[in-house]
């Protein structure tokens, strides 16, 4: 895990990663400026009103009261809009970061372990949104408001401004000392969250094996220990946060009391007007208020800071570049001396795979379970690299082609497809609104599915049978009109009649199709993989 960095540096990296962060910063600056001006207006109007009443009980206060009410309304509006506006801007940032993270995972694999990557892309990205929506505005206000308020104090009462300035300058000492401790706790807490996510995933996946060897209780006990360690770290972080808040409150209270004492003495000797003294006394706590809120939000956004540091470290890694495939052209593929497994004592087991897949052809990949069919298909999709050899796309090495551009042209049906979405339409579209209902209905008819597009499917389409889920996943591939269709056991869980419908539908598609299957399939050619020998399929 990379170490968490200074919030200002992290914010700069986020700005470079997503232009939307710039909008959030601009909104925070404008609203913070308006809020600070409103605070000064409130203090001046209220001090002038009280001073006038003290000297002349029947003095007119309409102007000062109107100014105070207007400044109060303006401050309420600015404070009330700060979080909703930045939250509205931060929501697209969350989607953009997840989209970029998913693209990175598809291109380079998980950022660490699979479960830690899921934790980072779900709770971590949510924490980054919270960091931008809440901590960023408070950080901007903490930088702007004290400067503006100190400037006003210096113009009207240099003594009080000097006292407040010295107190503010003492803040970095406390904040650095406590911040270093908070940073260490924050890093440890996020690291333990990642470890807990990874360990929990391993335990769940291996629970069957653990129970068969009567070791499940040990795994659960270890999981409890990891959870308790995270709990202790969280409590330690909270203790630092409370100590930090106490230090800021104490310093703010002492500074305000000292300013009040000096103001009182100067009022007694007549060297200061009552209205000015009241305005200064009202504004002194406001100098420290943004700093206290920023410190509180810093601790509340600790996960976001740690998650952003980790996520940006991965997103900023150099990506594999390359040229884009020819647009609109159905490509031909050539598998040249590709090896999928490490060398062993049985030389024939690792014989290279050589095959030519003409443009628009239907090619079957056959062989018993464990022979490498799924692995070969993943290599063709660019989801993993072969141990040796190359895949050529229209004569160009796939390793030199831009991976994102290639994968936009490929539709991939794995053995265990996931079907997120509440309805048939949502499952097929997967957020792509350009896929219309007519094309979905046509594809459903091709594979023999008669489903209402608004039908509720339940979580992971559990309302459908295994065969229906399989065909619905195939429809999701077909409607995207890919140039290359890669299918892993498309007829699994289907009876003979429905399997034939799927075979006929695949046979009529106008694209390059590579199908791994155990069932008989009328293909143009076959790539045969066997555990003892890998044959040439040209």
Summed over residues and divided by their number, the pLDDT gives a mean of: 78
Measured on Cα atoms, how large is the radius of gyration?
A: 32 Å
Order of helix and strand elements from N to C terminus: HHHHHHHHHEEEHEEHEHHHEHEE
Alpha carbon gap, first and last residue: 47 Å
CATH classification, class level of the largest domain: Mainly Alpha
CATH superfamily placement of the largest domain: ABC transporter type 1, transmembrane domain
Order of strands across the widest beta sheet? 6-7-8-3-9
Q: Helical segment tally?
A: 15
Q: Enter the CATH topology name of the largest domain.
A: ABC transporter transmembrane region fold
Describe the overall structure.
It is elongated, with a radius of gyration of 32 Å. The chain folds into two domains: 7-315, ABC transporter type 1, transmembrane domain (ABC transporter transmembrane region fold); 333-528, Rossmann fold (3-Layer(aba) Sandwich), CATH 3.40.50. It has 538 residues and is of the alpha/beta class. The chain has a five-stranded parallel β-sheet with strand order 6-7-8-3-9, sandwiched between helices. Strands 2-1-4-5 form a four-stranded antiparallel β-sheet, with no helix packed on it. The protein starts with 6 loop residues before the first helix and ends in a 10-residue tail after the last strand. It has helices at 7-17, 20-55, 62-108, 114-156, 158-205, 207-212, 216-268, 274-300, 302-315, 373-381, 403-408, 424-429, 437-446, 466-478, 496-508; strands spanning 333-339, 353-357, 362-366, 388-393, 396-397, 410-413, 484-488, 512-516, 525-528.
């Amino acid at each position: 895990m990379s170490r968490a960095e200074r919030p200002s540096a992290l914010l700069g990296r986020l700005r470079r990663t997503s232009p939307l962060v710039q909008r959030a910063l601009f909104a925070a600056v404008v609203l913070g400026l308006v809020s600070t001006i409103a605070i000064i207006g409130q203090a001046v109007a209220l001090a002038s009103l009280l001073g006038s009443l003290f000297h002349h009980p029947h003095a007119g206060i309409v102007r000062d009261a109107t100014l105070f009410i207007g400044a109060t309304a303006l401050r309420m509006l600015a404070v009330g809009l700060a979080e909703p506006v930045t939250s509205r801007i931060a929501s697209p940032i969350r989607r953009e970061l997840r989209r970029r993270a998913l693209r990175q995972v598809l291109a380079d694999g998980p950022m660490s372990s699979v479960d830690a990557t899921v934790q980072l892309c779900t709770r971590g990205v949510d924490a980054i949104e919270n960091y931008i929506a809440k901590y960023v505005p408070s950080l901007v206000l903490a930088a702007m408001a004290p400067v503006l308020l100190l400037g006003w104090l210096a113009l009207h009462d240099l003594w009080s401004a000097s006292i407040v300035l010295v107190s503010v300058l003492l803040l970095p000492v406390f904040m650095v000392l406590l911040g270093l401790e908070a940073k260490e706790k924050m890093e440890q807490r996020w690291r333990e969250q990642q470890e807990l996510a990874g360990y929990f995933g391993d335990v769940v996946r291996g629970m069957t094996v653990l129970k068969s060897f009567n070791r499940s209780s040990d795994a659960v006990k270890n999981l409890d220990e990891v959870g308790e360690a995270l709990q202790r770290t969280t409590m330690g972080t909270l203790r630092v946060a409370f100590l930090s808040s106490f230090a800021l409150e104490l310093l703010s209270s002492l500074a305000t009391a000292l300013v009040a004492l000096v103001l009182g003495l100067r009022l007694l000797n007549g060297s200061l007007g009552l209205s000015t003294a009241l305005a200064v006394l009202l504004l002194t706590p406001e100098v420290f208020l943004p700093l206290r809120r920023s410190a509180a939000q810093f601790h509340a956004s600790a996960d976001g800071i740690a998650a952003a540091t980790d996520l940006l470290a991965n997103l900023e890694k150099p990506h594999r570049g390359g040229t884009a495939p020819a647009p609109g052209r159905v490509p031909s593929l050539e598998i040249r001396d590709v090896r999928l497994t490490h060398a062993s004592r049985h030389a024939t087991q690792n014989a290279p795979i050589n095959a030519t897949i003409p443009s628009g052809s239907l090619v079957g990949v056959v062989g018993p379970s464990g022979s490498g069919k799924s692995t070969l298909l993943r290599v063709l999709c660019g989801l993993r690299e072969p141990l040796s050899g190359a895949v050529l796309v229209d004569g160009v090495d796939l390793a030199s082609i831009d991976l994102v551009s290639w994968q936009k042209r490929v539709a991939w049906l794995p053995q265990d497809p996931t079907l997120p979405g509440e309805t048939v339409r949502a499952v097929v579209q997967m957020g792509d609104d350009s896929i219309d209902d007519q094309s979905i209905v046509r594809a459903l008819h091709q594979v023999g599915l008669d489903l209402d597009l608004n039908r509720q499917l339940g979580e992971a389409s559990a309302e459908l049978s295994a065969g229906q889920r399989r065909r619905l996943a195939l429809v999701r591939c077909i409607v995207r009109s890919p140039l290359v269709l890669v299918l892993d056991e498309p007829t699994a869980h289907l009876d003979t009649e429905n399997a034939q419908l799927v075979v006929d539908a695949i046979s009529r598609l106008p694209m390059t199709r590579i199908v791994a299957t155990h069932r008989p399939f009328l293909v143009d050619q076959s790539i045969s993989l066997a555990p003892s020998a890998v044959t040439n399929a040209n």
